[in-house]
Amino acid sequence: MLQIAFAPCYVQELPPKHRFPMAKYELLPQQLLREGIVEQKHFFEPQAINHKHFLAVHDAEYFYDFLNLKFTQKQIRKSGFPLSRSLVNRELLIAAGTLQASLHALKQGVGMNIAGGTHHAYADSAEGFCMLNDQAIAAQYLLNHQLAQQILIIDLDVHQGNGTAKIFENEKRVFTFSMHGEKNYPFKKEKSDLDIALPNDTGDDAYLQILKEKLPQLLDQVQPDFVFYLSGVDVLATDKLGKLSLSQAGCKMRDQMVLEQLKARNLPVEISMGGGYSPAIKHIVNAHANTFKLVQAIYY
Coil, strand or helix: which one is 153? Predict the structure, then answer.
């Protein structure tokens, strides 16, 4: 049975300008249930994990400053969110959810997180609404517990996974692949193991052709035994921060390509949602819901 991590949000505590992009985390589960894509039994609330699992990735001083609400004003501005106890608790649970969804994936082939994809978080700094790097924490956990030997991170968010790339730059057991907008945030890119930078306005045909060619080659090359997939929907043409031009159908085909390749190779995968900033919330929620529909169709 599909297991989906869902950490309660704290939208009402945010300033108005921050509420809109966070609303999808509450609306997406509602839509999945309303459409009958999943049932309530498919959701689980993440349980707190030992701090040592965060410290396997994040610098201790940085982690405890965040935990104890001791960020400087510069750190708060760079994170993008006002610092609060609710934010800290949510970030801890998001990372725990991705870790626990990964363990479900080992048993069932796939595990999902309604949130996550906090790929801009570095070991020692927050950036771009990302404080703790959920997939990096989960990947390191799998390695440390000998649950995986070779990990592939497929990051198809429109923004480069700079924090993830930096965290694993010297870790040969984790291969980082980021396909993103060339002229988009972050403007100082890190070096992933494989970066594919796309020009503005790249549409369905060009995007999907590149992915169709590169993904099978990459899977053959890396030979992973576990995959993390960041399925951001900020690649949509409607996205105000994206600069690419995928349609809803193209975004869905992207997910289908990835999931069918992984299923055919019996590779367990954890999926985190990543970004989505279309002005109409329905475009964001529908695109994310398509990912869940595909998982149910392909795996169950």
Answer: strand
Residue 21 pLDDT greater than 70, yes or no: no
- Give the closest residue to 249 by CA, choosing from 299, 205, 183, 282: 205
Q: How far is CA 38 from the centre of its chain?
A: 20
Q: Report the C-alpha dihedral over residues 252, 189, 186, 175, rounded to 10 degrees.
A: 40
Nearest to 133 by CA among 176, 172, 103: 176
Number of domains in the chain: 1
Give the range of the structural domain holding residue 221, as residue numbers without chain letter. 4-299
Q: Is the pLDDT of residue 11 over 60?
A: no
CA dihedral of 248, 154, 7, 62, whole degrees rounded to 10: -130
Going across the sheet that includes 110-113, the strands are: 43-44, 4-5, 110-113, 269-272, 226-230, 151-155, 174-181, 194-198
Encode pLDDT of 121-172 as tens digits: 999 999 999 999 999 999 999 999 999 999 999 999 999 999 999 999 999 9
Q: How far apart are CA 119 and CA 127, in angstroms?
A: 9
- Omega of the bond leading into 186 within 30 degrees of 0 (cis): yes
What CATH number is given to the structural domain containing 233?
3.40.800.20
Q: What is the mean pLDDT of residues 222-251?
A: 97
